[in-house]
Amino acid sequence: MPVFKLCLKIFKKNIPVMSIYFGVFILVSFIMMSNASGAQLGYSDVKTDIAILAEEESVLIDGLKTSLSDVANFIEIGDERSEIQDALYFRRVGYILRIPSGFTAEFLAGDTPTLAKTVVPGSNSNIYIDMNIEQYLNTARLYANAMPDMDLGELTDEVLNDLAQDTNVSMLSGERIYGEQGMMQYYFNYLAYTFMFVLILGISTIMLVFNNLIIKRRNACSPISASKINFQFYLANMFFTLVSWLILVSLSLVFGRKELSNPNTLYFVLNSLIFAITASGISFFIGNLVKGREAINAVANVFTLGTCFISGVFVPQVLLGEGVLRIASFFPTYWYVKANAQIAGISNLSWSNLNGVGNTFLVQIGFAAAFFILAMVVGKRKQMAVEEE
Amino acid sequence: MVVKVNNLVKRYGDLLALDHLSLEVRSGEIFGLLGPNGSGKTTAINCILSLLKYDKGDITVFDKPMSPDAYDIKKDIGVVMQEVAVFNELTVYENIDYFCGLYVSDKAKRKALVDEAIDFVGLNDFRKFRPKKLSGGLLRRLNIACGIAHKPKLIILDEPTVAVDPQSRNKILEGIVDLNKLGATVIYTSHYMEEVEQICSRIMIIDKGKVIASGTKDELKSMITLGEKITLDVFNIEEAQIEGFRQLRNVTSVDYSEGILVIRSLKGKNNLERVLEYVKSEGISFGKIYSEMPTLNDVFLEITGKELRD
Predict the structure, then answer these.
(1) Average pLDDT value for chain A
(2) I need a labelling partner for B50 at 20 to 30 A (CA). Which of A63, B66, B164, B294 fits?
(3) pLDDT (mean) for A197-203
(4) Is there a single domain that holds both residue B69 and residue B210?
């Protein structure tokens, strides 16, 4: 298989240039990974530092403290105005709850005693504490109204018991929750840039070599048929595409290894494979158009960067203008990124959820077919021109 | 017959590139195709190799009809194109190995053939060089090595010495003669008459796609009336003496310019002797005198009325 081996040798000569792009991919992935570990993107349980200034002791108030202990850290502060102000100013606490004297008795008598709170201005965490206090007192109110003879200790136990109940919720669809989970989409989105560039560079370089009229004629003098030469040529390009894809997908999976167990990962991989075929189609088309090595570098840079920018590889599609996205939809990168977003949004793998992703896959396959056909038409026209020379 | 071309016609639109061209190349010979640039040499070669479609005519190679898919014929042909057909990404060794690999699949056998080819063209010191690092002459030698490494029975060389320095040119020509001695039949195209004259056993001169003469170099030279050309370095000569030269038997023209006297004569015996006798009788002093037999350029000139390199 001399042509196959020759193609591999030429690919090998391009490794230094390609490795720069693989290196950039690894670097950007590292940066993304370190940003993600800063927990800026996701939700996680954070306990609010609160202080409770109780002017009385009771089982009901103890129960409230027990209930709040799941969402709050209790900080001891003195009940002096200056101490309270300092604690809030220096953020030792974000929420101070004052329970007035006689609160329990008034509550059990059916009144609505006031609980005084002091919070750090602009803080959101107090809302969650408010909700928890309200939930506790509302439940206690229900028991007190329904069973007025119930012992206060028993009432408190029942309330705490009720609040401890969890309900499992399954999301049929919806936005993915960011956090340490969910970075896979970013790795796979960014893969498009490196992959497209490497394929255009590699395949177009080979095309340039084999489209050289002299080499074409020289090969035509040999006892190997044109179909065999073409077969070896396409086999080598397919091999190159697969190897590049394997390297980039492996890197993405290594960076997103925490999400390997997520069934969506398989669809990210499948999407990238479809994109690989589309990108090779584009590379064949470009390879048939360009006439010089310098032109390949220029076209690879302009096309790859341009389409990646407008398609949402670097900037999320939601932040891009409608007009930009409309233009981007004429490029397969847009559909690849869109498919990644759709895959990331799937919380369970039902047929209805996969339907949308499937359509996006089909659009990409359509692009691949179109580019391959275009490449063949341009190649055939060139061949005919050569035969006439 | 190794190659037989009969009434080949090739048109590029309105331009008639080959006009009923016929030729025969016999086994074991070096067949020269001589003609000025644009005369149709490369077109003829491309048609013989089935690289170009032609309008009319028959081509047989090794007594079989030649066609684009005649792979059993192609395996015995070595081609050295006019333009250097090598891969800039590969080294000298890798280039020869690739082209040899199109004909020879056995790795061990191929290695031996590639080594032999490198040795033959004298590129041993440049095995790991990329083509861009080679001089024009070395590049041409690489081009030849790529074409002959698989030891073909028929070697077609299309102007292999274009833009090559004299030293490399001689090396290439010597190599072609050696290949022929090793048993290969060679078709050699060139517009350099000296090269064709030097190495070819039979020569065909073409112009505007038409065969204008064919035969051995002696046969070609015998076709014309022109004899030898005598040149003298003369320091001082009178018009009457120049006229005297013109009156000598067989002399067709006498030109004197900047101390050099050129006397052209028809074929015939003792032309030089008569000139020398006249010089002596007239007491003409001269620096040097030399005589040249007619060249292929003279043949071309007499038949077409123009120089080969016009």
Answers:
(1) 81
(2) B164
(3) 84
(4) yes
